Amino acid sequence: MPRLDPRIAAVTDRVIERSKPGRKRYLDHVTDEAARGIDRKALSCGNFAHGFAAAGDDKTAIRTFQGPNLGIVTAYNDMLSAHAPYYRYPEQMKLFAREVGATAQVAGGVPAMCDGVTQGQPGMDLSLFSRDNIAGGTAIALSHGMFDGVAMLGICDKIVPGLLIGALRFGHLPAIFVPAGPMPSGLANKEKQRVRQLFAEGKATKDELLAAESASYHGQGTCTFYGTANSNQMMMELMGLHVPGAAFANPGSRLRPGLTRAAVHRLVEISGEEKRMLGHCVDERAIVNAIIGLLATGGSTNHALHIPAIARAAGIFVDWQDFADLSAAVPLLARVYPNGSGDVNDFHHAGGLAFVARELIENGLLHGDILSAGSDSFEGAMTTPEEDGDDIVWRTVEKSGDETILRGVADAFQPDGGMRLVTGNLGRACFKTSAVDEERWTIEAPCRVFEDQKDVVTAFEAGELDKDVVVVVRFQGPRANGMPELHKLTPPLGVLQDRGHRVALITDGRMSGASGKVPAAIHCCPEALGDGPLSRLRDGDVVKLCATTGSLSTIADLDSREPAEAPPQPVGTGRELFALFRHHADDAEKGGSAMLHAMEESL
Description:
Elements: H1 6-36, H2 45-52, H3 59-63, E1 69-74, H4 89-99, E2 103-109, H5 115-118, H6 127-142, E3 149-153, H7 159-168, E4 175-177, H8 189-200, H9 206-216, H10 228-238, H11 255-270, H12 278-281, H13 284-297, H14 303-313, H15 320-329, H16 344-349, H17 352-362, E5 383-388, E6 391-396, E7 419-424, E8 427-432, E9 442-450, H18 453-461, E10 469-473, H19 478-481, H20 490-498, E11 503-507, E12 520-525, E13 542-546, E14 551-554, H21 579-584, H22 594-602
Parallel strand pairs: 1-2, 1-3, 3-4, 9-10, 10-11, 11-12
Antiparallel strand pairs: 5-6, 7-8, 8-12, 9-13, 13-14
């Protein structure tokens, strides 16, 4: 295996050293749970009888310990396109388990909400903390102690991180994620974005906009842009938590049930194998691989929150400086919408993750020696599945099928991964340069300060923003209102930029994995609530955002001012139920989690 790039090695070593105390506590927990935790044999007869009472044909096998019993944690619902395919998966997986002398039970279900449905709506304030909710639901499902391995059915934004965080507290069990794939390509994402901007300018009707959106989001599977959902699938592959190549086969394709079958058979195979315990597989190298994959493919900025949160659940600590230093070493190998014209299906057909993994490993830019749950060797990640009669074979991908979408290291789109840390007297924030033309990496202009994205749209429609402007949207952090994505700002800000204005966004909130084009400093820490520096900005203050120098600053005298008063805590649409999460949430750079913050205080 090629020698690891010294820059990658340096960051990995730094993460290992920083994480030593937390990682030791975590691995001690895994060892203790493996030795003394609850399992089928430790249950009383009454406990155990409850656990297999409804198991039908599998009752005898479960009762007499004839083979591993797999727990399925599912995020199925039939309202969301990405999760609708999971409807029949448990039935199929039970059959696949029986083929290899095992059994399977649905351990529990977790909620799956869609940011695409809730964007700009009150429900979006629940989105980030749904991750903590899902992690808790996963723990509840696995707390029964009936299982020897875990199959995770989840795809989208907060669902995969939540499932993984919850499962890591049961890190003595092996776990594999079982995806369902993206929907086939519909209306081109670039055309959808064009109609959105026309609607923002009043040049398209609502019927025309709905027609465009419906032609884009048209069937079962994840959305086809390279947002958080599809970035999740990339991460699971490059962390070794998928059967290789499982990420992007479409629902309903002949490959899909075969990949699910392979996942079940593999999970049975590694049940009881100590070194393949989830807690051992998700180590510092696997976390670094997730960051590298994010950078190499131009993935969603939401993972600047999710990866630190996942890492903390395994006793590992990463920060945005780690992201920035890795970004300087990792070239951008993919341009997938919103960073390019092709969608995730085009990316997959061009060689996809198998090509990316091979290029990175062969150039010393990825840990190729991590423990893989999904295959005997992580080098399996360099292969892609293909039909061979009734069987599946895995083949390597030697070259890109479309160099407008996918390139090798020697001919990368950018020499760096396009994720910059910007810092200054306005705090620390993330800037995704891979989606922004380099001539727009530096913006210096008077700011307009808002506390609700709807007010930005109102000001845009009134012509108040038709100039060079830095739009600041504050009190959008985890503790303020749950850190919603501000994706509705993309069309109006894109229109202003297309008119020739120098425009940027600065916020302590999030932008979607679908966002791009407009320069943005997002996830600002410390957040405005609690006297963060954004709370002291005023309309007209000159603000400079520069990705080249890593600067986020203002010449205004912030220390001489009192912080602005925060808006009231949100209520309605169930948001009041999440007040406890908001109250205890930590900074975005730590993952914006209330659950992990409280967990660490209790250990």
